[in-house]
């Protein structure tokens, strides 16, 4: 699987499909200033390599906080986070940035595209390898757009894309560096029902190529498309 190969290249242990990739033990998050607030109660969670997981709950339940902890965008206040068998807590900012760059792709509720740039150049921004030559970068960006069904509009500026097209470009940007894990935070929140379903179907299909998928959502439809649901 591609995921295992990428993990080895990134200096992480190789994890076979179906084996634990992400392991949280009593991971929680709280702030102490300006007043003490508990945002995420300690929890245990194991996610297998190549699986799909939906984290479902109402607003304010801590879904996005949990996703940010898994994505190494924040450090947990307590507990242990192991990725591919290696402890993540205690790593410094540079180490966490390198981990995200090599292993993770993110899809946010807002697509965060640069309006004046084309779909192709927006996808190109997702590549983090500084040694790729321009021709290879373009090839990978076009390939990623083809995966999400947008090869025909590669040169169209983001300002002229529909809402569904923007989300697909955001998915392509997350996929272009071939990450082990894709974390999608409320990817259907601003979409109509049909478009939202197509985005969920697209994300679910990623696991066929060995990618591990984590979808954070209040959309109950996601429960029908994933291997496991965390409520």
Molecular structure report:
With 231 residues, the protein is an alpha/beta fold. Helices cover 31% and strands 24% of the residues. It contains seven helices and nine strands; from the N terminus they run αβββαββαβαααβαββ. Helix 7 (193-204) links the parallel strand 7 (181-185) and strand 8. The model is unreliable at 1-11 (pLDDT under 50).
Task: Spell out the key features of this protein.
globular, 5-stranded parallel beta sheet, 231 residues, alpha/beta, disordered N terminus
Share in β-strands: 15-25%
* Helical stretch tally: 7
Strand order of the largest sheet: 6-7-8-3-9
Low-pLDDT parts are 1-11
Distance between the termini: 29 Å
Structural class: alpha/beta
> Compute the gyration radius: what is it?
17 Å
Give the number of DSSP strands.
Answer: 9
Instruction: Quote the average pLDDT.
Output: 88
What general form does the structure show? globular
Record the SSE blueprint:
Elements lengths: L1 H8 L10 E12 L5 E12 L3 E5 L6 H8 L7 E6 L2 E2 L5 H11 E4 L11 H6 L9 H14 L15 H13 L5 E5 L7 H12 L7 E6 L10 E3 L1
Parallel strand pairs: 3-8, 3-9, 6-7, 7-8
Antiparallel strand pairs: 1-2, 1-4, 4-5
Question: Would you kindly provide a brief summary of this structure?
Answer:
The protein has 231 residues and is α/β, with parallel strands linked by helices. The chain has helices at residues 2-9, 63-70, 93-103, 119-124, 134-147, 163-175, 193-204, and strands at 20-31, 37-48, 52-56, 78-83, 86-87, 104-107, 181-185, 212-217, 228-230. The model is unreliable at 1-11 (pLDDT under 50).
